[in-house]
From TrEMBL:
<dbReference type="Pfam" id="PF02771">
    <property type="entry name" value="Acyl-CoA_dh_N"/>
</dbReference>
<feature type="domain" description="Acyl-CoA dehydrogenase/oxidase N-terminal">
    <location>
        <begin position="26"/>
        <end position="91"/>
    </location>
</feature>
<dbReference type="InterPro" id="IPR037069">
    <property type="entry name" value="AcylCoA_DH/ox_N_sf"/>
</dbReference>
<dbReference type="InterPro" id="IPR013786">
    <property type="entry name" value="AcylCoA_DH/ox_N"/>
</dbReference>
<dbReference type="GO" id="GO:0003995">
    <property type="term" value="F:acyl-CoA dehydrogenase activity"/>
</dbReference>
<feature type="domain" description="Acyl-CoA dehydrogenase C-terminal">
    <location>
        <begin position="240"/>
        <end position="370"/>
    </location>
</feature>
<dbReference type="InterPro" id="IPR036250">
    <property type="entry name" value="AcylCo_DH-like_C"/>
</dbReference>
<dbReference type="InterPro" id="IPR046373">
    <property type="entry name" value="Acyl-CoA_Oxase/DH_mid-dom_sf"/>
</dbReference>
<dbReference type="InterPro" id="IPR009100">
    <property type="entry name" value="AcylCoA_DH/oxidase_NM_dom_sf"/>
</dbReference>
<dbReference type="Pfam" id="PF08028">
    <property type="entry name" value="Acyl-CoA_dh_2"/>
</dbReference>
<dbReference type="InterPro" id="IPR013107">
    <property type="entry name" value="Acyl-CoA_DH_C"/>
</dbReference>
<keyword id="KW-0560">Oxidoreductase</keyword>
<protein>
    <submittedName>
        <fullName>Hydroxylase</fullName>
    </submittedName>
</protein>
<dbReference type="GO" id="GO:0050660">
    <property type="term" value="F:flavin adenine dinucleotide binding"/>
</dbReference>
Amino acid sequence: MFTAHRSPERPDLLAQVERMKEIALRHAGDSERGRTLAPPVVDALRSSGLLKMCAPREVGGAEIDPLTHVEIAEAAARIDTSTGWSLSINAYSAACAGAYLPDAGVERVFRDGFPVVAGALSPMGTARRVPGGYVIRGRWAFGSAIRHAAWVISVAVLAPEDGQPPAAVPGVIAFLIEREHVRIEDTWDTAGMRGTGSDHYRVDDAFVAEELTFPFPNAPAQRGGLVFSLPTLPSVMPAHVGFALGVAQRALDELLPMASRRVNLWTSASVADSPAFQMDLGRAAVKLAAARDHAFSVIGSAWDRFNAGEPLSNEDNSAIRLAGAYATDVAAEVTTFAYRAAGAGVLYASCPLQQYFRDIYGATQHIAVSDDAYQAFGRLRLGHDVSHPLFAPRPRSANRDGES
């Protein structure tokens, strides 16, 4: 059993998600049709304070604990998938800027108030060192929530210095760049996750000052509490777990009234009165509850040990990654059951269940919850090394030594 240190802001933040419900539901179709989060929902996110939830207190954030992040992502996705996904991307991206940038970089990014930050943390570009910073070039995929962002965060591989051979293991940096220097490509015409605006984007030889960069993936935290000393993998996984759980819960929410209204033309009986349906519903509900309990146990117990001063082991990191993959797989299974049991009415675009079906399968394609999480955990249990840069512990920066 875990005790899991929880954020004091948790009740207020969950209440803010509930207050956004009407706006998010009203504009869910607009987000789908526009292929990015609808402006009224963006405005509601900004005014709610939810975009600050992950950031350090020094920049106005709540620096929520991992389990609170699961719960908020779950609650938001249960209302609207596009809102839930975009919220987590924007909140986590801003948190990275607030926690890991040097002081001069934070002053620039946060000088006009709390920023909306988006992007992709995959090393798809190159960074060439020049006096005072880097020249960045690259093209990134899956820039979720980028169209309403003021700043974009991305990751680039360091190019060899002039006259130097390529490094065996090249360095990697994360960088922040104002969106006006980024070219967004209209590529997000997809079957699932349509409302998240996850377009490709390019940076073409733009200068980025040193102060707007930090090492990736294990930069030391420059500000904020213990949560910013977590390795990268366990810091991003709560959003994926919560999103998947919220999708499946909403699918069951939508199914129940539809099953009561639907009549089987062969038997003239309500689908809801079918013993077979009732059994399948019970199985789906308990599978989802078990996946949720498993994720909370794995993440919560690891967070407890981390709070007690224990570094996360490869087994901790692998188990957290596996919990995310498993929660997503179970959510897809439960949502598929709901979709098939709902009948032909689910085909209409006006039925939210068809969106949740498409969106959970979109989420299954994310690298963070890919199937090889199972293989990696199996390899670990067999005694093989499964270390990875995303599992690497973060060193504490010199100016934070001695802090509790």
